[in-house]
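User: Study the chain.
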Amino acid sequence: LPSNVLRWSSAFWGEDAQNGGQPSSFHVLDEVIKTLCDTQLFRNLRRIVLVGHSGGGQILNRYAAAGRGEDLYAAPRGVRVRYIPMNPGSYQYFSPLRPVGSSETNFAIPLTCPGHDQWGYGLFGPLSNYHATHGLGPVQLEDQYKRRDVIYLIGSDDDDPNDDSMPGSANLPGDCVPNLQGAHRLVRSRAYFNHLVQHFGRRIMRHQQHVVI
């Protein structure tokens, strides 16, 4: 890639870029919101909708928890922000519990798979420089996420456990962590939403899930 094109080395959500002053991928999304909230450019703007599909849905799910763009730039101007992660292959959990077997409603702490609760899949370290800069720890991540306006979309036929692009699948192998969330995207999405309801209760009422047929 040309030297002026920002690039990141892995799927560690929120990590610093390898070039260009090393901004975090979350910092880039902050700058998008900041630009849209510039009254000299978009004086009539009332709502921003951030949409991400598959891998884009994965980073959007994590950004909704850690990103500061909404609170720093949109909220002071009265601009509402909505997050729509579509068909992500994995999610950011807010407790060490994971689905038991093929269940979408029963959760327990896994007895195997060390590190399943680290950032990106859980709340704990190592966190990124972005987290440190904004003073984000588990408490702050939970507080931000429960206040977000999030709509989760998942395809009713997205149920292939061997899909080429799904983390943990036979064709995209990795560690055991993503597989703890379920066998395929559809069950992972349903289980995750049940996790949010069980963990946050009525505090998560702004969140919605829709299965697209």
